[in-house]
Amino acid sequence: MPLLFSPPDLFYNDVESRKYTTSSRILSVQAEMTHRALSLLSLSSPSLILDVGCGSGLSGSILSSIPASQGGPHMWFGMDISASMLDIALQRDVEGDLLLSDIGQGVPFRAGIFDAAISISAVQWLCNAESSDTNPQGRLARFFSGLYASLRRGGRAVCQFYPKNELQKSMVSSAAMKAGFGAGLLEDGAGTKNAKAYLVLTVGGGELKGGIEGVVDGMEGVDVLERRKGDKKRGEERKGSKGWIMEKKAKMERKGKVVKHGSKYSGRKRRVQF
Fold first, then answer.
1. Mind spelling out the 3-state secondary structure of 73-116?
2. H helices within 105-240, ranges in order?
3. Which of 14, 161, 176, 260 has a CA-to-CA distance to 8 between 20 and 30 Å?
């Protein structure tokens, strides 16, 4: 895992990108994680896959080389924020198409175009605030909303990432569920410094039966996470209702902030003025 001292487009300059792509240790780890992600996707036929944070195309090369007996080979499209990484991918003559793009600004593809998506060691970058005007929650929300829209009904995604702590793990999984995904979280090497988290995501509809529970059935160590977007917990106030507004005011008061008193008009809809 790279030290997250600077944003990825600056960290992965020409020198770092070359080192990353030529390191035998990194090549081995990347291949291991890509095959792990593919096993979690469980694709039975050649598919169109989005490689999020594709870097120099290491994972993409594996997608292109999967034999027919294992459901391949797959076609893929890669997106990454590092121009240096993509330049090396072009020099390596990878088979996938490439896009220079910041995943924190969304996933700019036609709705329902991809069968599946993978992301290896990229999502954790979205959890960092390199400047005061960077909002990690907003970047995660834009990414997962765009990813959800770009997958077909019944599609799946696997995002491998390195969470610094439980808070980052929760930030990532919560943002995915708010976007509409069913989610399961699997951790390899839990409790060690090399722990790798895999977020298994599903899009409802299509031929997918049973949602995320059906996908992870029989897998050991997978935590099936909470509700999809739109599912409301019993007793939860509707956003914008008087009860919701009063709860919000109470929370702000407990934080020591000055708020206006509630009244009989709190939460009422205003008439449209002509």
1. CCEEEEEECCHHHHHHHHHCCCCCEEEECCHHHCCCCCCCCEEE
2. 136-150, 166-178, 211-216
3. 176
pLDDT in tens, 90-139: 999 999 999 999 999 999 999 999 999 999 999 998 988 766 667 889 99
Token digits for 269?
Answer: 């809809």
| pTM beyond cutoff 0.85 | no
Pairing type for strands 97-100 and 75-80 reads parallel
What long-range pairs does 211-219 form, CB within 8 A, spacing at least 24? 211/182, 212/182, 212/183, 212/184, 213/182, 215/42, 215/156, 215/182, 215/184, 216/184, 216/186, 219/40, 219/184, 219/186
